[in-house]
Specification:
The protein is built from eight helices and four strands, in the order βααβααβααβαα. It is an alpha+beta fold. Bound molecules: 2'-deoxyadenosine-5'-diphosphate and magnesium ion.
Length: 149
């Protein structure tokens, strides 16, 4: 079972797309493990996006993610990393597959609505960066055996 950190970024919150994005992840069959609505601090933003430090878009990226609240979540399931990246779509909305969140609701790479971990290892690291252990809920869903083989 994989776990992925999902953020609905400030544009998604401001545009009232929380329900839309969460609904897609629920319908996909993923299981919610943790969620919090929060303002991102400068420190957290810089650690989360450390890999992009020095790139031309870095300052704008930090300003964007700290500009308004985000919805931070952990979702789990078999192949959760690939499944959620697919549901969100490619980084550039104009390259995102039709039917994906970024295709259906976004136009610009700097306003692409969501974040999702890009590997199992980064999923583990990002979940522990954003959530304390006691904020995560281990539970079984009544429908699990109809979704997880
Ligand atoms: P993703 O969010 O799909 O994992 P990423 O990790 O490569 O993409 O980049 C993180 C975020 O940085 C991305 O969601 C939007 C922004 N970004 C990436 N490349 C960019 C670019 N060339 N110009 C502007 N913003 C960019
Ligand atoms: Mg990324």
């Amino acid at each position: 079972m994989e776990r992925t950190l999902v953020l609905i970024k400030p544009d998604g919150v401001q545009r009232g797309l929380l329900g839309e994005v969460i609904s897609r992840l629920e319908r996909r069959g993923l299981r919610l493990v943790g969620a919090k609505f929060m303002q991102v601090s400068q420190d957290l933003a810089e650690i989360h996006y450390a890999i992009h430090k020095g790139k031309p878009f870095y300052n704008g990226l930090i300003a964007y993610i700290t500009s308004a609240p985000v919805m931070a979540m952990v979702w789990e399931g078999p192949n959760a990393i690939a499944a959620v990246r697919q549901t969100m779509g490619a980084t550039r909305p104009t390259e995102a597959a039709p039917g994906s969140v970024r295709h259906d609701f976004a136009l610009e790479v700097g306003r692409n609505l969501t974040h999702a971990s890009d590997s199992v290892e980064n999923g583990i690291a990002e979940v522990s960066l954003w959530f304390a252990d006691q904020e995560l809920v281990n539970w079984e869903r009544a429908t699990d055996s109809w979704i997880f083989e």
